[in-house]
Specification:
- This protein is mostly helical.
- It folds into two domains: 133 residues, DNA polymerase, domain 1; 165 residues, Intergrase catalytic core (hpI Integrase, Chain A).
- It has 17 helices and five strands.
- The protein has a three-stranded antiparallel β-sheet with strand order 3-4-5, covered by helices on one side.
- Strand 4 and strand 5 form a beta hairpin.
- Helix 9 packs across helix 13 and helix 15 crosses helix 16.
Amino acid sequence: MRSLGEFEELAPSQRFDAARRAAEEWFTHLGKGGTTEAVTVRTACDRYVEHLRATKPASPVSAYALKRRTDLPAGASHTVRAADDAQARFKNYVLDNAKFADTELSKLTPAMLDAWRRRLRERPTRSGGNRGEERTTSSLNRDMTCFRAALNLAFVDGLVTSDFAWRGKLRPIKDADRRRELYLDKDQRRRLIEKAPADLGAFLKGMALLPLRPGALAALSTSSFDKRLGVLLVGQDKSGRDRKLKLPPVTAEFFVELARNKLPGAPLFARADGRAWDKDAWKYPVRAAVEAAELPAGTTAYTLRHSTISDLVHDGLDLISVAQISGTSVRMIEKHYGHLRSDVAADALAKLAL
């Protein structure tokens, strides 16, 4: 026996019709092979977390990144599973509303999902370097994607026979990761390095020489660099995979000096006190160096990564190689930097002139 509720929120004259519609929907659900179990939003989220634990391997993160993720379970290790990430997102943005969390999937409506999405948009972020700040479209997409995946799994598993409620309302917002526009030419990069303190200057020079994420560069230890082969092993990165970069002689020479007289486990890019760099440590000194160098407002350490990738693409390096060096996908390189290929294409066409 299944109770469809008492419909107390409705006027007495409306309850019979509402109960009849609910009964018809329930029998339609059963007729399509739906489960007799009362599956709620909470159940769907819990099942998705268990699904990720069984199917998704852990991804390595740096100690600093782990410290920033205050939303992760206590005692999380330096390998964070997708399941832990999903569980934290659900806890913060889905299951925090008990009424919504206990809503049965079969009773979800587009209006409910639209209201949830609007509430999420208005809430500040709770993790990462931008914790407490206004939620960006990219952040909204990541949280919606996780929740949509949980609901889709319930649909695929037959726990609910329609995905109509969320099919449109949880659709990702297009062009959330807009193309990066702020670019520093080589003279500007040199000026930034010169205006920075010596320890920060070395870190910024590393970013100007290699298109790595700042966190990946900061995570390098002396043992990451093979002086004999001139090879750098990048092991801590968003891509979650180790990769080896063969350095040109001029770059290798810079890394040889960095590694000189350091123990294998010491940070390759160390602050003046010997500790590794992290976002909290470089954020304000970089801002001060930007002002001293009279560079455009909004310039950050990440601007150097964008600028070096832009140069590689503009100078004609194939996109697969750019993606491999940068630790990202070809799709992302095409999306953010594909427009720079137009000059390369024009030069190639010019060579065809008779």
